[in-house]
Design goal:
Elements lengths: L1 H16 L4 H8 L5 E6 L13 H9 E10 L5 H15 L5 E8 L2 E10 L2 E11 L3 E12 L1 H10 L7 H4 L8
Antiparallel strand pairs: 1-2, 2-6, 3-4, 4-5, 5-6
Pfam family, one: DUF4252
Protein name: DUF4252 domain-containing protein
Length: 175
């Protein structure tokens, strides 16, 4: 009986591991020449704490890191573009990704999703696609973030001195 129970638990664990996720997608595509991958820590923002309000400082504390994965379209990979874009959209259809906002229409535009509860968000996901350029997925990982923190963090970006050298690989994705 114990062996049967152990086998069932092991099989369910393995089955769960095969479900697609953005994290797995990022890991799989990081080494592909069709993709550009950049990982960033909060230090990239280069914000002086005294330039921020208390609210902005608190929101910044919830931000842990950001992962960017971009598919830059060119003549060699044009055929792969729709397939990869469809894979990302399918992952984002999972119920754990809750849509917060959507911009644009059809195959072009952008969406913002979150993972977690309204008052304890683990991850914000920004997805944008443009037929001529490609698509990008940005994962903003944090600790107990909420939508207000996200908006506050965006306002704090105006006071940042972002190290553009770290973003150079993404140059030209969405012009």
């Amino acid at each position: 009986m114990k062996k049967l129970l152990f086998s069932l638990v092991l099989m369910s664990f393995i089955a769960c591991e095969k479900e697609p996720s953005l994290q797995k997608y990022f890991v799989e595509k990081t080494e592909s020449t069709d993709f550009i991958s950049v990982d960033m820590s909060p230090s990239i923002l280069n914000i002086k704490p005294d330039a921020l309000s208390i609210e902005q400082q608190e929101a910044l504390k919830t931000f842990k890191k950001m992962n960017v994965l971009a598919f830059k379209i060119n003549e060699e990979n044009k055929a792969k573009f729709d397939g990869e874009r469809t894979k990302v959209k399918e992952i984002l259809k999972d119920e754990k990704y809750q849509e917060l906002m959507k911009f644009g229409s059809g195959k072009e535009g952008a969406s913002i999703y979150f993972v977690g509860k309204d008052d304890a968000i683990e991850e914000f996901v920004l997805y944008g696609s443009k037929d001529e350029n490609g698509f990008a997925v940005v994962r903003i990982l944090g600790d107990k973030m909420n939508p207000e923190d996200f908006m506050t963090l965006l306002s704090a970006l105006q006071k940042s001195d972002i190290d553009m050298e770290q973003l150079k690989p993404l140059e030209g994705i969405f012009k």
